[in-house]
Amino acid sequence: MSAEGQAVVFEEVSKFYGEVLGVNRVTLNIPPGITSLVGPNGSGKTTLMNLMTGLIHPDHGRILVRGLSPRDPEALMRITGYATQYDTAPRWATGFTFLTTSLLLFGYERREAEEKAWKALERLGLTEAANRKVAAYSKGMRQRVRLAQAIAHDPDVLVLDEPLNGLDPLVRAETIDLFRAWAAQGKHVILSSHVLQEVDVISDQVVLIANGSIVAEGAIRDVREEIDEHPSQYLVRCRHASEVASLLFAEAHVTEIKLNEDGMGMLVMTRDRQQFARSLARIALDGHRIDGVVPADENVDALYEYLIGGE
């Protein structure tokens, strides 16, 4: 299959709600793996998700989801699973009947639908609550049953709107492990999240969106390297930090240094990442002990602030 056939592709896509802009001239090529959509409320994240799952259609442009057009809903629904933020289970439905009914709509025979429903509930740790009404579930359990519905037919593309909301830390960690397992199978896991630290941990790439337009996309490090107007930041742990700081500050590429209160490290801001690496290596070779160097702004929080300006 071609690269386009494996990707989720947007080509100059625009969507309006009357006179209100949803997204404007969006061009994306999202490969398999975990991709996080990041942006403030009203930025267009949910519009993108609704477009790629065929719930709405663009006013302009073209969309392909692994080679399929969202305008072919029957074909698309077989390869996509969508977990929205909203409760979709009827009040009378148990977790098991909710999933089984959803699978019957896909055309599965009842026996196979029930087997798939139970397997999905098992993967999300909901078997003990399977025969209880979803209306009586906690917020976290309702979140998990929506995710179970999305994965029950083993889709290739998972679209998940704030999927970690309301989950306790243990279930959250287990759910992230599931995302990684699906991505390792070559599936798409496309999610939105407002918890930027989690985006750093789980994402293969990010799409930053503001006011309906794509601000940046790609691996976090690649996006950071394209931002020239903000000096790169590094945390350096070392002995005799003041001596190392004085040596670094003599370098033209270093713009600012902040010493840690414990005297065992510093925050260094540099306009040339490669020159910084060479300078630090030279200082270490001259006999100064460097215990560790960690990028301080290769994270979505920093990119969000640099490119979007914060919420």
What do these coordinates show?
The protein has 311 residues and is an alpha/beta fold. The protein folds into two domains: 4-218, Rossmann fold (3-Layer(aba) Sandwich); 229-309, Alpha-Beta Plaits (2-Layer Sandwich). The chain has helices spanning 3-6, 45-52, 73-79, 95-105, 110-123, 139-151, 169-184, 196-202, 220-225, 241-249, 273-285, 300-307; strands spanning 8-17, 20-30, 33-38, 60-65, 80-83, 157-161, 188-192, 205-210, 213-218, 232-238, 254-259, 265-270, 290-295. A six-stranded mixed beta sheet has the order 5-6-7-3-8-9, with helices on both faces. Strands 11-12-10-13 form a four-stranded antiparallel beta sheet, with helices on one face. It has a three-stranded antiparallel beta sheet with strand order 2-1-4. The longest helix is centred in the middle third of the chain and has 16 residues, at 169-184. It is elongated and about 75 Å long. The model has no long low-confidence stretch (mean pLDDT 87).
Characteristics of this structure?
2 domains, alpha/beta, 6-stranded mixed sheet, 12 helices, 13 strands, Alpha-Beta Plaits, 311 residues, Rossmann fold, 4-stranded antiparallel sheet, single chain
